């Protein structure tokens, strides 16, 4: 099938409508705490059996793009990330919204999301086969090193004391060890005889417990506080002016490249890309102390990075049959149910499906830009809603989202315990973001370290496999990160 026929399929009124519905559904599920893109994708699985293949692909790609971008709404306006991919967006997005620049912060996030998603889609279109071969060359030892470097960056460059960040990060890593062993799937660890703990902890419940609910508790204590004034011009499309686009161009481009590369590596996804993009931009900034106070670059970097993982994660899924993240895992399952075989054979036997997927993602990014740019006036009004109405609604969504994970009320029980822990951490200066990134990457680190030791025979043998180029790359990133963290810590001490 030629690209002309693929264009006719994607721009068919029914296909275009499916993309629009998918983007709307993904944005709603992405911005509401307690819901998520995987839940939205799972909900439409029963529907796609009776749909045409191109319609089903358009619907899923719309949900995927809209869901990853939708997390910025609650992250900026409420300091409650809709997903782990929007955690770093809260660091500068929420302070900017508190200053009354919520609409501007949303515009920056939406535009950065659009550029990141479009860039990764173009890379998917041009370099899918080549980049898939590069990802195939990564072994377990390389995955272990990449994940470990992400942990170090998260620890040293997050706002707060690096020592406290290390403590919360290690707690997150330890939480991944609860449940069945990821290698043999037989040994049960730290379950203490509880059947529910054998499945371990769920990411959505952890994000809600340590990030969302503590913020609700704090806002409940300020329930009578006056809401900030919102600076909002009357216009149809809330797009960034050309001057600000030029100022943020370098940041958005760097985040897009990083997000695409992280997305290619299976198991990482938007969460690590978001935090790594933020950490990288903070390291390169001339005034890194402005990060965390409402710096526009602190919004553009993570949003371009996390949305760039969409196209990046589709590269190994389509070219190798290996899902890049949770979302592509569900999409891969849907392709299997539709009788579509992914991997190298897909490029030979089903090139039209490959091309349709790429074009659907490309179109979904433009629809996402238009939809969210138009809806900013309504989205920023969340700040004007009294806490007496807003907080109970968000709490219901959070609790319902936890229960819907596995239809198990036990998820709510340990989520409530995490609320206490998260609130305790926040009030004592312990950042919770490293805890989340530690949980996200803990399983990847353990799995690939054990596989490396099994393959090479011992840990010392693994160390001997580190190339000079890899070592130089790690040092060039980690050493400046540690230097900036120490310098910022010294400045804070002087102020005190």
Report on the structure:
The protein is an all-alpha fold and about 500 residues long. It contains 20 helices and 2 strands. The chain has helices at about 5-10, 15-30, 35-50, 55-80, 90-100, 100-135, 140-155, 160-175, 205-220, 240-265, 270-285, 295-320, 325-335, 345-350, 350-380, 385-405, 410-425, 435-455, 460-465, 470-495; strands spanning about 180, 190. The protein has a two-stranded antiparallel sheet. Residues about 490-495 have low confidence and may be disordered.
Rounded radius of gyration (Å):
22 Å
Largest sheet: 2 strands, antiparallel
Question: Could you report the average pLDDT, rounded to the nearest whole number?
Answer: 76
* Derived structural class: mainly alpha
- The number of E-state strands comes to 2
The helix/strand order is: HHHHHHHHEEHHHHHHHHHHHH
Major beta sheet, strand line-up: 1-2
Structure in a nutshell:
Helices cover 74% and strands 1% of the residues. The protein has 20 helices and 2 strands.
Give the SSE map.
Blueprint: H1 3-10, H2 13-31, H3 37-48, H4 53-78, H5 89-98, H6 102-136, H7 140-157, H8 162-175, E1 179-180, E2 188-189, H9 203-221, H10 242-264, H11 270-284, H12 297-320, H13 326-337, H14 344-349, H15 351-379, H16 387-406, H17 410-427, H18 433-456, H19 459-463, H20 468-495
Antiparallel strand pairs: 1-2
Helix pairs in contact: 1-15, 2-3, 2-4, 2-15, 3-4, 3-13, 4-5, 4-6, 4-12, 4-15, 5-6, 5-12, 6-10, 6-12, 6-15, 7-8, 7-11, 7-18, 7-20, 8-18, 9-16, 9-17, 9-18, 10-11, 10-12, 11-12, 16-17
Keywords:
496 residues, mainly alpha, two-stranded antiparallel ribbon, disordered C terminus
């Amino acid at each position: 099938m030629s690209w002309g026929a693929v264009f006719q399929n994607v721009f068919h009124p029914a296909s275009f409508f499916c993309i629009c519905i998918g983007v709307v559904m993904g944005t709603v599920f992405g911005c509401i705490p307690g819901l998520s893109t995987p839940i939205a994708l799972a909900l439409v699985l029963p529907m796609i059996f009776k749909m045409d293949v191109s319609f089903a692909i358009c619907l899923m790609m719309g949900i995927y793009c809209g869901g990853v971008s939708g997390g910025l709404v609650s992250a900026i306006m409420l300091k409650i990330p809709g997903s782990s991919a929007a955690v770093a967006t809260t660091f500068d997005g929420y302070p900017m919204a508190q200053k009354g620049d919520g609409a501007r912060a949303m515009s920056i996030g939406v535009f950065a999301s659009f550029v990141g998603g479009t860039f990764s889609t173009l890379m998917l279109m041009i370099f899918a086969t080549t980049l898939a071969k590069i990802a195939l060359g990564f072994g377990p030892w390389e995955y272990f090193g990449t994940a470990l470097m992400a942990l170090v960056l998260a620890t040293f460059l997050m706002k707060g004391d690096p020592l406290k960040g290390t403590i919360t990060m290690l707690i997150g890593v330890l939480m991944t060890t609860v449940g069945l062993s990821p290698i043999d799937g037989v040994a049960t660890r730290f379950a203490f005889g509880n059947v529910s703990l054998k499945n371990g902890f769920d990411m959505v419940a952890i994000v809600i417990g340590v990030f969302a609910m503590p913020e609700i508790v704090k806002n409940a204590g300020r329930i009578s506080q006056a809401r900030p004034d919102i600076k909002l011009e009357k216009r149809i499309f809330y797009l960034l002016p050309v001057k600000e686009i030029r100022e943020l161009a370098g940041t958005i481009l760097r985040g897009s490249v990083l997000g695409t590369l992280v997305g290619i590596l299976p198991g990482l996804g938007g969460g690590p890309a978001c935090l790594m993009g933020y950490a990288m931009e903070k390291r390169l900034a001339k005034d890194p102390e402005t990060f965390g106070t409402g710096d526009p670059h602190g919004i553009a970097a993570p949003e371009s990075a996390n949305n760039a993982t969409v196209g990046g994660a589709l590269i190994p899924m389509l070219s190798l049959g290996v899902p890049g993240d949770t979302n592509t895992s569900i999409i891969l399952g849907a392709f299997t149910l539709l009788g579509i075989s992914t991997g190298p054979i897909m490029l030979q036997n089903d090139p039209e499906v490959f091309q349709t997927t790429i074009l659907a993602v490309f179109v979904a990014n433009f629809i996402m830009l238009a939809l969210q740019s138009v809806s900013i006036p309504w989205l920023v009004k969340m700040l004007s809603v009294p806490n007496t109405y807003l907080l109970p609604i968000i709490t219901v969504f959070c609790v319902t989202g936890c229960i819907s994970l596995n239809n198990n009320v036990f998820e709510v029980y340990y989520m409530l315990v995490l609320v206490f822990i998260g609130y305790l951490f926040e009030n004592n200066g312990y950042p919770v973001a490293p805890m989340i990134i530690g949980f996200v990457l803990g399983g990847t680190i353990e799995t690939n370290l054990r596989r490396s030791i099994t393959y090479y025979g011992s840990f010392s043998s693994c160390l001997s496999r580190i190339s000079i180029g890899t070592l130089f790359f790690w040092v060039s990133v980690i050493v400046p990160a540690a230097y900036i963290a120490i310098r910022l810590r010294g400045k804070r001490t002087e102020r005190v």
